[in-house]
Design brief:
CATH superfamily: FAD/NAD(P)-binding domain
CATH topology: FAD/NAD(P)-binding domain
Strand content: 15-25%
Helix content: 10-25%
Structural class: alpha/beta
Bound molecules: flavin-adenine dinucleotide, iron/sulfur cluster
Number of domains: 1
Length: about 575
């Protein structure tokens, strides 16, 4: 019997455990296995294999029972996820349904989640802009949050490292606010976007319009071919899962790469309950896992643990990892775990029309759009609000198709659509300020179907966000007017936080264990063999999309963790 136990403990023991198989967990798996560590990836959701796991990827529009729409009753059952633009008939199976995974909204918060192998890497819009020193130095300059323990130069080589492997398209624009990367050829701006770019450069010294950088392979390199991935075909059906591996996802890229090393064990349907702290050794020894179906509890053991369950779930797991030494959650002596959560302000849009270029239109599709990098409060504080916003931009032309007439005349009208006016759209991407009062905690009485406390979310906008939203509307309207665009309209959706899908913080990095949870290597100050490299680690939020930074920080931390392991320091 004793022998049997030893054997089962051995079977449950690895060099490293990674919690979560999404964008950041996939990178942790790749790096740790490549460096020779026998690695267990625990994923609460079902397995999704690259290609065979994408049931809708090759379906024609008429093959969908509801022609792509979500039926009303499903919308009613899913008031939260139903608000996400990508929750459509072709991709709904990759989203968490509201009823199955409840949480407590102390304030309205639309928490959009993907629980499966690959996580939200199957759903993301693939925008990958590097952060700059204006972002990493922001808190030190404004004093609105704790100083980052790192700067752009610390992450730059790791940005390059992950960009080359993932495949990022973009143009080298030479902008201080948006450092250039290792780019594959860029997609193109449309003629109206290009015209707007020229107008903006001629009228403003510090404002720019560029093609957004995105995780699509426009010219496969040997490293992409070795992954079995090919060129993006511009189908723009990415949210169904791409059979060509045209965009970066964990499923098509990092996870199969990790599997090829022979060092990976991937365990789907494994809900991590908590990290186990070994009181004698003063470090973590493993994790408690509940089988998603049988609800059976198992323990797995390892020398290092990477927590990559996506920002808020990582907070949940650490808050739930209580022990005699850490009664308030792992590494949480300062009581800051779960606090200083922040997000992005995506509330406002400005739209317009343009009468020019009447003889031109766009050709084909494009899986990305234009981008206006942050221009507010960059070199000096010039507004009443702190920090700034970037904006997405697109200008395209639809068809005006008459649908009246009957018989031959109807057919005639349908067959001869005319080009509509150019429509220009922009949406804001604002930085929000991490505050102690924006926090997540565990509900004391309510539990989920696996006996884990429900997460309580209390996160809100503030006056800074209101001012920033007004400024975005004013500035973009003004920029559009200067370009001669007409019918300029703006909307403030007043959507709840969360729908931006860029929640961050709660386990922030910092220099001082008194004011932060993680050090400059994403290592818990007080439990050195636990690393947090997803959005939970972010000290501030920048205006840029965050996932590329999670990838770079993960690769950097994994490199450090393995070196420390070899030195016997963790
Ligand atoms: C529609 C949409 C568009 C987006 N567009 C962009 C974009 O353009 N650019 C950008 O940078 N970001 C974008 N994002 C955000 C991006 O998807 C996330 O930032 C990114 O996926 C986060 O990576 P992650 O590894 O932290 O989490 P995820 O990719 O969500 O992976 C976390 C994994 O952990 C698993 N997990 C959670 N809890 C547990 C547990 N207890 N036990 C075991 N496993 C667990 C989950 O099931 C999941 O698979 C978008 C997201 C969505 C939904
Ligand atoms: S646009 Fe590119 S990445 Fe997206 S589905 Fe098409 S081929 Fe794949």
């Amino acid at each position: 019997m004793a022998n049997l136990n030893t054997q089962s403990i051995q079977a449950q023991t690895f060099d490293a455990i990674v919690i979560g198989s999404g964008i950041s967990g996939g990178w942790a798996a790749k790096e740790l296995t490549e460096k020779g560590l026998k690695t267990l990836v625990l994923e609460r959701g079902r397995d999704v294999q690259h290609i065979s796991g994408y049931p809708t990827t090759n379906m024609n529009p008429w093959e969908f029972e509801h022609r792509g729409q979500i039926p009303l009753e499903v919308m009613k059952e899913n008031p939260i996820v139903g608000k996400c633009y990508a929750f459509r008939e072709d991709a709904q199976h990759f989203f968490v349904k509201d009823k199955e995974h409840p949480y407590v909204q102390e304030k309205p918060f639309d928490w959009i989640r993907g629980y499966q192998v690959g996580g939200k890497s199957l759903l993301w819009a693939r925008h990958t802009q590097r952060w700059s020193d204006f972002d990493f130095e922001g808190p030190a300059r404004d004093g609105f949050a704790v100083d980052w323990p790192i700067r752009y130069k610390d992450v730059a080589p790791w940005y390059s490292y992950v960009e080359k492997f993932a495949g990022i398209s973009g143009n080298k624009d030479g902008l201080a606010t948006l450092p250039d990367g290792e780019f594959l050829p860029p997609f193109e701006l449309s003629c109206v976007e290009n015209y707007f770019k020229e107008t903006v450069s001629s009228q403003y010294k510090d404002r720019h319009v560029i093609i957004a950088r995105c995780a699509h392979i426009t010219e496969p390199q040997p490293v992409h071919i070795a992954q079995g991935r090919g060129k993006c075909q511009n189908r723009v059906l990415c949210q169904r899962g791409c059979p060509f591996g045209g965009y970066f996802s964990s499923n098509s890229s990092t996870l199969p790469w990790a599997a090829k090393t022979g060092k990976l064990t991937l365990r789907p349907d494994s809900v991590v309950h908590s990290v186990i702290f070994d009181e004698k050794k003063g470090k973590a020894k493993g994790v408690r896992v509940i089988d998603a179906h049988t609800k059976q509890l198992t323990e797995y053991y390892a020398r290092i643990i990477f927590v990559n369950a996506a920002a808020l779930n990582t907070n949940l797991i650490l808050l739930n990892s209580t022990s005699k030494r850490f009664p308030n959650g792992l590494g949480n002596d300062n009581g800051l775990l779960g606090k200083f959560v922040a997000f992005h302000n995506y509330r406002a849009r400005v739209s317009a029309e343009y009468d020019g270029f009447a003889d031109k239109t766009t050709d084909g599709r494009r899986p990305t759009g234009g981008y206006i990098p942050r221009f507010r409060n960059v070199f000096k504080q010039e507004t009443g609000f702190l920090r700034g916003y970037a904006a997405g931009l697109s200008a395209s032309r639809g068809n005006d198709q008459k649908r009246d007439g009957i018989g031959a005349s109807l057919k005639e009208n349908l067959l001869h659509p005319t080009l509509g006016t150019w429509r220009v759209g922009s949406h804001m991407m604002g930085e929000t300020i991490p505050k102690e009062t924006n926090l997540v905690s565990l509900d004391k009485s309510q539990k989920d179907a696996w006996g884990i406390p429900l997460l309580k979310v209390k996160v809100d906008y503030d006056e800074n966000d209101e001012q920033m939203t007004r400024d975005y509307i004013e500035q973009l309207s003004d920029m559009f007017a200067r370009a001669g665009f007409t019918n300029i309209t703006s909307t403030d959706s007043k959507q709840a936080p969360g729908l931006d899908i860029h929640e961050m913080g709660g386990v922030r990095m910092g220099k001082d264990p008194k004011t932060s949870l993680l050090n400059e290597w994403n290592q818990l100050h007080l439990c050195k063999n636990v690393f947090v490299t997803d959005g939970a680690c972010m000290t501030s939020t920048s205006t840029q999309n965050p996932s590329l930074t999670y990838m770079a920080l993960t690769a950097r931390a994994a490199d450090y963790a393995v070196k420390e392991l070899k030195k016997g320091n963790v």
